[in-house]
Design the sequence.
């Protein structure tokens, strides 16, 4: 199985950095990042709806890559690698939590 390295573009990367409050990604990977919807919504309010929508679109593209089981996904930015099904599920759960937070942050 081939490795696919993914980049996390801005503004999605900026949202993740905003939520990096538990530790630092270099140490704890995605566990360093809070997926608290209120925190993600606060970022959305801070940057505005256009930027939040752009981040959500970037997130959808990332989820599509991670869901493809034909390769191993590596992200230096997130300090995470989908070396097995548990690691892939952990990343997908993390991304789903961000999607929910971004969706909640969009204006009605």
Sequence:
């Amino acid at each position: 199985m081939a490795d696919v390295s993914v980049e996390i573009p801005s503004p999605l990367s900026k949202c993740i950095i905003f939520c990096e409050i538990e530790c630092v990604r270099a140490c704890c990977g995605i566990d360093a990042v809070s997926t608290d919807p209120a925190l993600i919504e606060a970022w959305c309010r801070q940057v505005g709806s256009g930027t939040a929508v752009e981040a959500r679109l970037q997130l959808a593209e990332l989820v599509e890559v991670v869901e493809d089981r034909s390769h191993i996904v590596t992200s230096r930015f997130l300090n995470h690698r989908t070396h097995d099904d548990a690691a892939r599920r952990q990343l997908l759960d993390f991304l789903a939590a961000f999607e929910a937070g971004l969706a909640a942050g969009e204006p009605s």
User: Anything to note?
Assistant: The two ends are 42 Å apart (CA to CA). The beta strands are 2-5, 71-75, 80-81. The chain has a mean pLDDT of 95. The longest strand covers residues 71-75.
